[in-house]
Amino acid sequence: MIDRPRRFGGWTGALAGLVAVTSVAAQEAPPLQVPAKSVPVPSDVSPQMAKIIGAPLRSNWNIQPKTGEAWKPVAEAGAAALAKLVPGMLERLKVKVERTTIDGVRAFILTPEEMPPENRNRLLVHVHGGCYVLNPGEAGLPEAIFMAGFGRFKVISVDYRMPPEATYPAAHDDAITVWKAATRMADPKNMAVFGTSAGGALTLAMVLRAKQEGLPLPAAIAPGTPMSDTTKVGDSFVTNAMLDNVLVSPDGFCDDGAKVYANGHDLKDPMLSPVYGDMHGFPPTILTTGTRDLLLSNTVRVHRKLRDAGVEAYLQVGEGQSHAHYIRDDTAPETRKVFEEIAWFFDRHLGR
């Protein structure tokens, strides 16, 4: 592990003053005017990833259902389409899946057909993404399948409650319930938690809550492109708007989904915007994002906050990738590399 840079007395005050002056100047500066331009697909990505990057903007990016009931048909339609892809993923990556209930919470257990000896006492907990309103049931499994297949870990994937079934803090409660149960199945020193988007935020929130409740912490976590700030603070909400072909805009569907789940709760609460939480004492963390990701800033800000808190934090950024492109196609070399990198990180930090 790299030692943190030392801070020397006189420099600390001078640097703080410089940062303060720079911050004020930035607030007073007029917005930068950027001319319209065409953005080609990067030439150095795989054909599979090029197809994903070059896809048109998500067709329903600007739908804005205001209730859980209105979200339900949207979620069901998306889930039906995605669930059709799951059997092929399971077959290609040689993973078995089993539905279960853990202390009253719906979940899936994923097991690779071949598990190396060093992973036999290890257990991962997965929380899926979907803006807190999408990807119920098997539709939430692709990322868990990739981790089980590429990393060859046993994974519990939490099928947490979402609107209209329940609102905040239901998903958080379900995730922490499964975490508590999982710590009775394996030594927390041999465990990790991971998830993407809302699942990335839930991963961070689970650690915050575990700290609050005095629960054992995982040995490592992997929050991918986390929805770490639901208040729309972050440079990439502007710079990558209409460039990210998944989330597309900070005023799109995902923002409204999070609001429906929050159900009037303060969006700046660290449980919903973990970047505002206390990250001292967090386990080693590996974060993943892309250069076109609308949540690039959400990810970078978490990385910086973790480093400032003295936490080992590793950041991987995919060339040309929009939000969560790395969980779109298991045949893309970039996808394999992301999950092999996470597996490498977990292997460094999990006991055996």
Automatic annotation (TrEMBL):
<dbReference type="GO" id="GO:0004806">
    <property type="term" value="F:triacylglycerol lipase activity"/>
</dbReference>
<dbReference type="InterPro" id="IPR029058">
    <property type="entry name" value="AB_hydrolase_fold"/>
</dbReference>
<keyword id="KW-0378">Hydrolase</keyword>
<keyword id="KW-0732">Signal</keyword>
<dbReference type="InterPro" id="IPR013094">
    <property type="entry name" value="AB_hydrolase_3"/>
</dbReference>
<dbReference type="Pfam" id="PF07859">
    <property type="entry name" value="Abhydrolase_3"/>
</dbReference>
<feature type="signal peptide">
    <location>
        <begin position="1"/>
        <end position="25"/>
    </location>
</feature>
<dbReference type="InterPro" id="IPR050300">
    <property type="entry name" value="GDXG_lipolytic_enzyme"/>
</dbReference>
<feature type="domain" description="Alpha/beta hydrolase fold-3">
    <location>
        <begin position="124"/>
        <end position="325"/>
    </location>
</feature>
<protein>
    <submittedName>
        <fullName>Acetyl esterase</fullName>
    </submittedName>
</protein>
<comment type="similarity">
    <text>Belongs to the 'GDXG' lipolytic enzyme family.</text>
</comment>
